[in-house]
Write a structure and sequence with these properties.
five-stranded mixed beta sheet; alpha/beta; 12 strands; 332 residues; 20% strand
Length: 332
């Protein structure tokens, strides 16, 4: 989209009455469909957002947003002008950011990150501490959204960046691999079945022992299989999944409370194991390593503030390669 598209989108408006703040409010409403949340996005109160929408309705001669039950929905006219206005705002933002210096000590603003509870647990504690020291006026929000929505959320501006496992993305998505991880198995400290098998923390659990123990599985959709199950099936084996939960932290809490065993990414496992009285073992077979990747829209490649934040996240999440499990040397 070019700036001319923006002009075309509002050609029927009274140009003297239009200002960029109104366009920012309109764009925020298209994203949030809620006046309170739209205000939070652009730094305005809910009454100020309502006032701005009133001005826009007067300028366009259209309601733009109408109430449908408990939510606001855009009219056909609002949907028609939404993308040209958003594209023009991005061009203006990029032009201004390219010409400005970023000073983290005095900078203000909000950045939104898509990530699982795994990412949140590894990133947000050190990031909060780093921001308090280096950029105390910045706000960072972690959003828990399905992986399949990553591209659309980066495209429409709902999120500034995402941290997820490596996957195929369009060529307009920039990416940086942060670290490589793998899955390990956790059990309650002193687990009697593992002790009876003569296993100590860090040992590989034999397939027969692994399959004999009831397990908790992290599964977003309730599926009863994970990466290790395909390898077990090739050996004519199957494990006992007793519980599924949608978050990694719930896996750790369930192991601690129930005595089940379960698999977690190694860096997360080592973070939570001492907190919940758990011990880390190697699963019967090494699952494929997982690349953890930082994603952002290419339109932010020259944005000084985001470049600074991306660099800080890379610094905080530059873990050692743990693709071979605890205590092991990564393969050459």
């Amino acid at each position: 989209m070019k700036l001319n598209d923006f002009v075309g989108a509002i050609r029927a408006m009274n140009f003297a009455a239009v200002d960029l703040n109104l366009m920012r409010v309109f764009d925020a409403m298209m994203l949030e469909l809620n006046t309170t949340r739209a205000g939070e996005r652009v730094g305005l109160s809910q009454p100020a957002v309502s006032s701005a929408l009133g001005r826009l309705r007067h300028i366009t001669g259209d309601q733009l947003f109408v109430r449908e039950g408990n939510r606001m929905v855009p009219t056909a006219r609002a949907r028609e002008i939404a993308e040209p206005i958003r594209a023009a705002l991005r061009q203006i933002e990029e032009a201004l950011s390219a010409a400005s210096r970023f000073e983290p000590e005095t900078a203000t603003g909000t950045f939104r990150i898509i990530g699982s509870d795994y990412v949140s647990a590894l990133l947000m504690p050190p990031l909060a501490g780093a921001l308090r020291l280096r950029a105390p006026r910045l706000t960072v929000q972690m959003l828990d959204r399905p992986n399949r929505d990553l591209v659309s959320l980066l495209s429409d501006g709902t999120a500034d960046l995402a941290v997820d496992s490596g996957s195929e993305t369009p060529d307009w998505i920039s990416r940086r691999t942060l670290f490589r991880s793998t899955m390990v198995t956790l059990a309650r400290r002193g687990d009697p079945a593992l002790a009876a098998a003569g296993l100590a923390p860090g040992d590989r659990i034999p397939p027969e022992v692994f399959c004999s123990l009831p397990q908790v599985l992290m599964s977003m959709d309730g599926s009863l299989t994970g990466t290790v199950d395909r390898v077990l099936a090739d050996q004519g084996l199957a494990r006992q999944v007793a519980v599924t939960v949608p978050h990694f932290q719930s896996v750790a809490l369930t192991i601690a409370a129930s005595g089940l065993i379960g698999n977690l990414p190694v860096h997360f496992a080592e973070r939570v194991a001492p907190l919940f009285g758990l011990e880390v073992y190697r699963p019967p077979f090494d699952p494929p390593p997982i690349d953890v990747v930082l994603y952002w829209h290419k339109r932010h490649d020259s944005d000084a503030a985001r470049t600074w934040l991306f660099g800080l996240i890379g610094e905080l999440m530059s873990f050692d390669d743990r693709s071979s499990g605890p205590g092991q040397t990564p393969p050459a």
